[in-house]
Amino acid sequence: MSPQQPPTSTSVSSSSPPQQPNLLKVAKERMDAVVLMLTAMFLGGLFLLSGVALDIGLIIFFAIVLGGILFYIRLFQIGFLGNALRVQSGKHAHLLEMVNEISATLAMPTVDVFITQDPYLNAFAVGYHHPYTIVLHSATVDELTPDELKAVLVHEMGHIKYKHTIITAYTQPMSVLVPVLGPIVAWSFGFWSRRAELTCDRLATAYVGSPHTVASALMKNHVGSKFAAYLTEEGVYQQDVYSKGAMRQLSQSLSTHPFLVTRVREVMEFAKRSGIVQ
Question: For 74, how many CA atoms within 13 A lie in the half-sphere containing its CB?
């Protein structure tokens, strides 16, 4: 997820967790793995042609850099333990209950969830090994409804469950440090990264059982909860139609996340295909 309506109640929604043994399979598409594999093959061939993969010195250098980045990720996670609010028992027991419910339903280990002071609606997951970390901006907790917040948490836990955070941890060094080829690496992995976001959107939709809840969370996240009231689903559809074309595809290919109009449309189409209605 990524960026306001007065603060809403943060009590846990009364809706029970979904009893769907195939929840993870329903949300995941075979093309996700295909795109990742094709990207890896393309980049592997590119490195071979450029001679980078044949340079032992560069291989050793990348190995050292990768180790440094993995170490930095751990430091980054520890930083939240020292500077942010860790969701646990007490006043935030309702959030902990929500987190534990999702973890149990998705059959995944416990995740450390932190709240950090930030006026922009956003949330992200990070980690390549247990313990994994999910960070919620304070505005996200304040301004989303309980069901919208649950959708955000499911989305971020999906990144962990599907091992997206692990893949990102290992590919990031190549996109930053490879001379000349770095931008090509980042652009190539963007095709998989955008699919990963849509996969987690589908998981959130299947979990909460409402595409409208997920769409609302996405719209608030992009324009702020205050102005999201003016951005209806119909308005998003109109913007989707108006922006179609080659220039839009090129523009979207430069982003790690799909456009808002793409995500809302995909969520609605997935809900129709899966028979998810509210």
Answer: 8
Token pair 């949300």 in the structure block, residue: 27
Per-residue model confidence (pLDDT) at position 11? 37
The pairing of strands 123-126 and 112-116 is unpaired
| Contact predicate 191/42, CB 8 Å | no
pLDDT at 125: 96
Looking up tokens 């969830």 gives 113
Alpha helices in the chain (DSSP H): 23-27, 30-50, 56-83, 93-105, 138-143, 146-161, 164-177, 182-208, 211-223, 225-228, 233-242, 246-252, 260-274
| pLDDT < 50 positions in the chain | 2-15, 19-21
Q: What is the pLDDT of residue 214?
A: 97
Q: Which residues contact 55 (CB under 8 A, 6 or more apart)?
A: none
β-bridge mates for residue 115, sequence order: 85, 136
Report the DSSP beta bridge partners of residue 123: 136
Q: At what angle do helices 182-208 and 211-223 cross, to 10 degrees?
A: 140
